[in-house]
Amino acid sequence: MSESIQADMYVELTYKVTDNKSGEVLSAVEFPLGYVHGHNDVLLPQVLKDLEGRSAGDVLEVPIDCNTLFGPRDESLVFTDRIENVPEEYREIGTSITMENEKGKSRNFIVTHMDDRTLTVDGNNPLCGREVTFTLEVLTVREPTEEEFAAGGAVQPDIEVDGAKKMPV
User: Fold this and answer.
1) Beta strand extents in 56-149 (DSSP E only)
2) Which residues of the chain carry a pLDDT beneath 70?
3) pLDDT at residue 68 in the model
């Protein structure tokens, strides 16, 4: 009998997130993502719940209404400024910038548009306002090693270089 996903089990899977309206793949994890179920919530709670009871080889689709998770888009969190006012290291689409408001609260913004004159950042969650489907393929379900359990997920093996153990980069 194959192991099923439940609390304290080590799970490896791949997934992709598809926008239901456009069919565009918004993100994909092609290399196995390893975690200890119930200890390292690397996925949305609804996805984790739907994974419970699944086994290696299972493929499942989990529809998610991101409006209920993140709320509707808030256009007041979208800012455009002249490019010369933005430090060079932030001038790349997809770059994450942490900003703090006058009350000291931090929020992450992502560079979403850039041209010769302006740069736009968006503080909304990238899934905000979308309905998406997570398509997951379960690759492995097993008891975790002590190291995996302690780490909550995959553990990189030590590599020996010139007789000394080094962590991989």
Assistant:
1) 59-65, 78-82, 96-100, 106-114, 118-122, 131-142
2) 1, 157-169
3) 86
Q: What is the pLDDT of residue 75?
A: 93
Q: Classify 18 as helix, strand or coil.
A: strand
Which token pair is 127? 């899934």
As a whole number of angstroms, the distance between CA 16 and CA 30 comes to: 8
The domains located in the chain, with CATH, are 10-69+128-155 (3.10.50.40), 74-122 (2.40.10.330)
CA angle (74 as vertex; 71, 79 as ends), nearest 5: 145
Distances (CA, A) of 136 to 59, 113, 160: 6, 30, 34
Give the model's pLDDT for residue 162: 56
